Amino acid sequence: MTTTLDSGSVGIVTPRTVRFDQPLLLACGRELPDVELVYETYGELNPQRSNAILICHALSGHHHAAGYHHEDERKPGWWDECIGPGKPIDTRRFFVVSLNNIGGCHGSTGPTSINPETGKPWGPDFPPLRARDWVHSQARLADYLGIDCWAAVIGGSLGGMQAMRWSLEYPDRLKHCVVIAAAMKLSAQNLAFNELARQAIFSDPVFDDGNYIYRDEIPARGLALARMVGHVTYLSDEAMANKFGRELRAGSLEMGNEDDIEFQVQSYLRYQGSQFSSQFDANTYVLMTRALDYFDLAREYDNDPVKAFSHARCSFLVISFSTDWRFSPTRSQEIVDALIAADRPVTYAEIEADEGHDAFLMPIPRYLRTFSAYMQRVGGDD
Amino acid sequence: MRLDLTHIQRWIEPGSRVLDLGCGSGEFLETLQRERSVRGTGIEIDEDNINAAIARGLNIIEQNMDGGLANFRDQSFDTVVMAHALQAVHYPDKVLEEMLRIGRQCIVTFPNFGHWRCRLYLGTRGRMPVSKFMPHSWYDTPNIHFCTVRDFEALCSERNIRILARDFVGNTDREPLLATTWPNLFATTAIYHITR
């Protein structure tokens, strides 16, 4: 299938890798002896180097945010709805940088990389990460690309948390911070869902405390189940009703079905789970969910988000979605309230959408209009 | 720009922090930012208005005033403005109290239901007035809490709200003198600068 090169696509893109030999000191006190980051860029950096945008990915994301790696690639990058010519993050105006975070499993240094001290993959010994570790490694990438100050740092979900962390860690290195479907910290309910996902992985005997990596096996069942739990929380009741309802795959409601898969929604979840388990590393999933769990924007600012945001120097756009129950509009309003109290410039929109948390990836007309309208002010002389 | 909004500007300190409740497409806030260098925030619920205000480069918060304004801190703004929205909120008195809590000063404008045309319409036809300025029928109007100039002043006196200044806009160019002399009869729009 050749789906590339429509006018709204960035077209064929090629990931690049950069290696930093200097050790990276992590929040946990340990050091990564060297760091490799895989990234993609879309659009052109202007001579003033003032039009660069950093995309921060979410829990299971990676560097491939837009365009296609080759003409036959089935699906474009994960945020192709928002990145490209004429899209909210318009690559005719912006130079967009998207990377795979450290700890990931798509090419950047992570549990599947070789630990130079042992000559074997890091696996479960990979140091625990915090969002600020990602931000610090992203700042290295900015240095390498010659970007002193991002026109905007943008992210959805866990990506939005990194964007907020940027505004506090490097207040002079970004002009705008776009935080979509995020929160300043996880609720107990959120922690519980992440724990379910991890327990699903741990309960797979193949996982073996993460040592599967040394045996060329993958805990596919556990990882698939973890993804299924996650996936349910990313959708809304409305979205699932619209997509699947109570439809059977075969058989009848009277007789049931001899097949192991009865309802359409089961089939969908199993497909999502098995797809994911073949593409994602279980140690990375555990690592990423823990980083998400421990994210707490204001903890070191006396648990006062107003005090935290008083360190920020940029303007903010915050967006939430009406049926997102993983990071509900209330969580976004808390961000907005703290920003107003800290007298930081902020714009907030709550988008009516049926798609739940996943809405941030979807082409919802009002979402794209609002996002585009805000991006008009980004990259100017402000 | 609407006439009542040009009247308001002179009451707003250059460089101050302004909250505009029901800011519409942000025309007024944009003018204030341009001409008085205020740091402005607007609150709005209509999505087309919100997008228009974002496109103007303004800081806009999507929020329904009827859900309260508790998220804004005491005395955190120099001026809180509400133009032609008082009559459309569920609890005008509570919104006024909240405005006075959030802002050191407040500016409120509203259509005067005591205007002679309203009285004539109701008096002669016995039906709720419908006009160019109030185009809605009683059953589908967003304006659920109309009041007169005297009603508003009575509320201010009951609640110990201090009126710093008042201004009135008449129906036509011929009416400004009438509007300021007998506002309850001749003002179409009332403009109040208030504080606690």
Automatic annotation (TrEMBL), chain A:
Q: What is its EC number?
A: 2.3.1.46
- State any single GO MF term: homoserine O-acetyltransferase activity
Chain sites annotated for binding substrate? 227, 358
Q: Which Gene3D superfamilies match?
A: 1.10.1740.110, alpha/beta hydrolase (3.40.50.1820)
What are the annotated GO cellular component locations? cytoplasm
Location of the active site: 157 (nucleophile), 324, 357
Q: Where is this site: Important for acyl-CoA specificity?
A: 326
Annotated GO biological processes are: homoserine metabolic process; methionine biosynthetic process
Q: Which UniProt keywords apply?
A: Acyltransferase, Amino-acid biosynthesis, Cytoplasm, Methionine biosynthesis, Transferase
Q: Which residues belong to any copy of the AB hydrolase-1 domain?
A: 51-361
Pathway terms, separated by semicolons: Amino-acid biosynthesis; L-methionine biosynthesis via de novo pathway; O-succinyl-L-homoserine from L-homoserine: step 1/1
Record field: catalytic activity:
L-homoserine + succinyl-CoA = O-succinyl-L-homoserine + CoA
Task: Indicate the family of this protein.
Answer: Belongs to the AB hydrolase superfamily. MetX family.
Name it. Homoserine O-succinyltransferase
Species this chain originates from? Pseudohalioglobus sediminis
From TrEMBL, chain B:
| Origin: domain of life | Bacteria
The record, for InterPro entries, names: Methionine_synth_MetW, SAM-dependent_MTases_sf
Q: Matching CDD domains, A to Z? A: AdoMet_MTases (cd02440)
Recorded protein name is: Methionine biosynthesis protein MetW
Q: Which organism is it from?
A: Pseudohalioglobus sediminis
Q: What is the lineage of its organism?
A: Bacteria, Pseudomonadati, Pseudomonadota, Gammaproteobacteria, Cellvibrionales
Underlying gene:
metW
